[in-house]
Amino acid sequence: MSKTDTNQKKIQAIRGMNDLLPEQSPLWQYFEGQVRALMGRYGYDEIRTPVVEQTALFKRSIGEVTDIVEKEMYTFDDRNGDSLTLRPEGTASCVRAAMEHGLLHNQTQRLWYQGPMFRHERPQKGRYRQFHQIGVETFGLEGPDIDAEVILLSARLWQQLGLDKHVTLELNSLGSMDARAAYRDLLVAYFERHAEVLDEDSKRRLGSNPMRILDSKNPAMAEVIEGAPKLMDHLDEASREHFERLCAMLDAAGIAYVINPRLVRGLDYYGRTVFEWTTTALGSQGTVCAGGRYDGLVEQLGGKPTPAVGFALGIERLILLLETLELVPAEARGALDVYLLPMDEAATGPALLLGERLREALPELRAQLHCGGGSFKSRMKKADKSGARLALLLGEDELAEGSVTLKFLREEREQQRLPRAALVDTLTSLLNGESLA
Ligand code: HAM
Q1: What is the pLDDT of residues 94-153, one digit of tens each?
Q2: Which of 89, 144, 176, 292 is deepest in the core (most CB within 10 A)?
Q3: CB–CB of 203/188 below 8 Å?
Q4: CB distance 279 to 173 below 8 Å
């Protein structure tokens, strides 16, 4: 073997694509569990679609002149020469699947999904190349009541997670296609009058997607953007009424919001309502959830006109937020309740069986069996390292008298020896937080 063979560099994960390690997974499971339960409570059904789609699907829905399509898609030719793309978001796939399987024929749908999305962005805290979204998409419902419902659903999630005081709802209306086209002309005329202030990106957008200039974070352009005509002042009558009714519903439900006339979103399919939930606790990647109405998309992809509204949240950002604000509940830490500790070879079989009995009697119990032998000292060390609250010790004496020794690993409390027959009751009381006699 040559030297270069033995010195080969270790293969590492792709930049911006993260492993989810065992210590992190309990929090993800807790988060996903909360969302799944919530979707059921609102009557939303899960849909799962492939992570790869034909490239044309994203170009036609997200828009050719968007950052996602221009710069961020993972696109490749497969072995048949077809252009495929790793999905950068879930809405387009959801619409494609709903159309393909006839879910939109004379019926309404309330769907949700979860999974990895892929965008070739510059990785930083809260921004990754593979990230995970949970999204909802509703179809066939035109009124602002469904816009209000999806917003209330997300608000309930923040409340459940203890995040409601830490996120702000930003809201805007983009109006109808016609109103937007008229506004676009106004905006182009305005920015052309201030062309000397525009940066290169914005000059390019002037011809293709002038509303995205409003999104620019360039401080040199802040003043000009501030003075630009506001879409809100040029809405068509029907969109204005839709928006006013939505605001009234949110007011009645006690949901606070800020109307942000510069909120335009980075995907082309939106019209009327758009919204984002933002936080100041995560630095520049502060949008934890975003969405809006996209009444034209189904038709644009070859279906019948179908009103639609939805949103997607970024799981990584919400997990970061829970950690940053120290809002991770004990149940999301995944700690063991019990470490089953046979003290010698003879106790191993009985400890294994005791574990099975306990799992039958207490389905919620999280118990781990000590395997692999070792000295008394190393066994105790492993028990401590397991993170369990209690150790159940089985040695020669316990075997002889049918008992078990219960040792508290995290509290200053006397250990106790008790009959094995009393163990289930004792553990039940302990796990329910009752003090023992
Ligand atoms: P989006 O704003 O592109 O919308 O993404 C939604 C959320 O996904 C963002 O607010 C953020 O929390 C998260 N996210 C986006 N990119 C990244 C990234 N690179 N790293 C980490 N998190 C990220 C959509 O995707 C639309 N499909 C939402 C929608 C559904 N609209 C209607 N229905």
Answers
A1: 999 999 999 999 999 999 999 999 999 999 999 999 999 999 999 999 999 999 999 999
A2: 292
A3: no
A4: no
Sorted by sequence, the CB contacts under 8 Å of residue 238 that are 6+ apart come out as: 176
Nearest Cα residue to atom 30 of ligand 1? 311
Supply the pLDDT for residue 255: 98
**Atom in ligand 1 nearest the alpha carbon of residue 127:** 20
Q: Which atom of ligand 1 is nearest to the CA of 90?
A: 27
Tell me, yes or no, if the pTM score tops 0.90. yes
Task: From 219, 214, 249, select the one nearest 232 (Cα to Cα).
Answer: 214
The vertex-247 CA angle with 244 and 253, nearest 5°, equals 145
Cα angle 52, 54, 57; round to 5: 110
Residue 363 and residue 253 in one domain: no
**CA-to-CA dists, residue 125 to 16, 104, 128, 319, angstroms:** 10, 38, 8, 12
Q: Are residues 313 and 349 in the same domain?
A: no
pLDDT at position 437: 45
Q: What is the CATH number of the domain that holds 356?
A: 3.40.50.800
Say which residue the tokens 């709903």 belong to: 98
Instruction: For residues 216 and 239, give the distance between their C-alpha atoms in angstroms, rounded to a whole number.
Output: 25
Mean pLDDT score across all residues of the chain: 94
Do 278 and 426 belong together in one domain? no
Residue 77's domain comprises: 25-175+235-324
**Residue 265 alpha carbon, nearest atom of ligand 1:** 2
Same domain for 294 and 158? yes
Q: Which of 284, 317, 319, 322 to mutate to test the pocket of ligand 1 (most atoms within 8 A of CB)?
A: 317
Ligand 1, atom 20: nearest CA belongs to which residue?
Answer: 127
Q: What pLDDT score was predicted for residue 70?
A: 92
Separation of alpha carbons 213 and 198, rounded Å: 9
Q: Is residue 401 part of a domain?
A: yes
How many angstroms separate the Cα of 379 from the Cα of each of 359, 384, 400?
Answer: 22, 9, 21
Q: What pLDDT does residue 433 have?
A: 79
Dist CA 183 CA 209 (whole Å): 12
In a domain, 163, yes or no: yes
List the binding residues for L-histidine.
Answer: 89-91, 119, 133, 137, 265, 269-270
* Ligand 1 within 6 A of CB of 382: no
Residues 243, 162: Cα–Cα separation, whole Å: 28
- Mean pLDDT per block of 10 residues along the chain (437 residues) reads 64 97 96 98 98 98 92 97 98 98 96 98 97 98 98 98 97 92 92 92 88 88 92 93 98 97 89 97 95 96 97 98 95 92 96 97 96 94 95 97 96 95 95 67
